[in-house]
Design goal:
Helix content: 25-40%
Largest sheet: 7 strands, parallel
Structural class: alpha/beta
Strand order of the largest sheet: 3-2-1-4-5-6-7
Shape: globular
Order of helices and strands: EHEEHHHHEHEHEHEEHHEHEHEHEHEHH
Radius of gyration: 22 Å
């Protein structure tokens, strides 16, 4: 069986979307004659933990670990809560930041380039160079962010004759939060330099969306291949639907995603429609930024909120299937058109209709329309949003509210892994 080395920071018991992509690829790669060897940190700092995901690690995977030095341990002495939020991507840009937040962000952006896991790069290159030679491995895959892992791939590529696939779950210098890191001119230039070197040295660039593919093809002549995230064939027992007309957001609800158009729309419908006001519930499942909660309060929606906080992945899937409507929100900016939230694919197989908000030209809008799994609404389409909510509410009253999806099979994790296995085989 052909061995492939996969270098990843996020791995169970880490929770959140970052862990799912390679956990599932590793699960199915052995079915296609590929032995996954996963290299992960021995003592990572995970902002979110989900112990249930450990059960999903393939018994056929070989796991190797090496200690990592991370500055989050030191900075958490000053403020554990703020450090945890920054490390998980919850960066506030709408409210005034405290002096401590500004200092932590400046340190994160300017002293640790490309990110706070940079101290793992050199020890990993030394360790893995020996391991690769001894095990006869000819293909390595690095997954970022954190993009410092691509520097491990870069170092190994320079030392060894290996095929290197650099997997970008998110873009690098154009990702939304990059601007919030208060980068100096030097730091910004260094990021672009690293990005260019990785994109032009890796044998294949793997991305999750067509927009990122187009963006990277301007920066490199190396092949750029799209393999989206997807859904797994999870065994979830039949759930009883919420008695309320529940609109649920599942996953991290960052301050930049705060959809004032939605809160305004819901406030208007509640004011105009007594029946809706009696039936409506807003379910929040996952980490929610203070700014989002403050805005919900501003629009007098507090009494309708059920905030369950972070739950395990299994519980999140159950809540999806209980909810009447699922809410998908992406930041309204040019930089986020390429982002296809991982939860979209789980939403799609939940049989619950999706209301999605995002910028015009979003890659995920095409997927929703193609699979007939919901409606996509731009941030200036408040009347369309209002009509969509009321349409779903009417179907709820009639007992007919359900998604009628088509063509989902191409997004199954097994099908996507088959595509990955072909890419690995054809490039070695």
């Amino acid at each position: 069986m052909k061995k492939v080395l996969i270098i990843s920071y996020y791995w169970p018991p880490a929770g959140g979307p970052g862990v799912q992509r390679w956990l599932k690829f590793v699960k199915y790669l052995p079915d296609f004659g590929i032995q996954p060897v996963v290299y992960i940190p021995e003592n990572p700092t995970y902002p979110i933990v989900d112990a249930d995901l450990v059960k999903d690690i393939s018994e056929k995977a070989i796991i190797i670990r090496k200690k990592i030095i991370e500055p989050y341990g030191l900075s958490s002495l000053f403020s554990k809560n703020k450090t945890k939020k920054i490390s998980s991507g919850i960066i506030s840009t709408h409210r005034k930041q405290t002096v401590l937040e500004k200092v932590l962000l400046w340190i994160r952006g300017n002293l640790f380039i490309p990110d706070a896991r940079v101290f793992w790069v050199k020890p990993s290159i030394s360790f893995l160079e020996k391991y690769i030679r001894e095990e006869g491995i000819d293909t390595i895959i690095t997954s970022g962010p954190p993009h410092s892992l691509h520097l491990i791939g870069l170092g190994l590529k320079k030392k060894l004759d290996v095929n290197w696939i650099a997997d970008f779950r998110d873009p690098w210098t154009t990702i939304g939060y990059h601007k919030a890191l208060k980068l100096s001119g030097y730091a910004s230039k260094k990021h672009k330099q690293f990005e260019s070197e990785v994109l032009n040295t890796a044998d294949t660039i793997l991305v999750t969306s067509k927009t990122t593919k187009t963006e990277f093809e301007v920066l490199t002549n190396q092949p750029v291949v799209v393999i989206t995230n997807g859904y797994d064939e999870e065994v979830i027992s039949k759930q009883i639907l919420d008695a309320k007309f529940s609109i649920a957001h599942i996953g991290s609800f960052l301050s930049e995603r705060n959809p004032r158009i939605l809160w305004k729309c819901l406030k208007e419908i509640i004011k105009e429609n007594r029946s809706f006001a009696n039936d409506f519930q807003l379910k929040l499942i996952g980490a929610v930024s203070p700014e989002v909660l403050e805005t919900i309060q501003e629009f007098l929606l507090n009494e309708y909120v059920l905030n369950l906080g972070y739950v395990s992945h299994k519980e999140a899937l159950e809540e999806q299937r209980k909810s009447q409507v699922l809410l998908l929100i992406e930041i309204n900016s040019e930089e986020t058109k390429s982002i296809i939230p991982g939860k979209l694919f789980e939403y799609m197989v939940s049989e619950r209709p999706i209301i999605a908000l995002g910028p015009e030209g979003s890659d995920f809008a095409e997927i929703i329309q193609k699979t007939n799994t919901g409606v996509f609404i731009k941030y200036d389409e408040i009347e369309k949003l209002k009509a969509s909510i009321l349409n779903y509410y009417q179907q709820f009253l009639e007992g007919k509210l359900q998604s009628h999806a088509v063509g989902l099979q191409e997004y199954s994790r097994r099908k996507l892994t088959e595509k990955l296995s072909e890419l690995i085989t054809n490039n070695t």
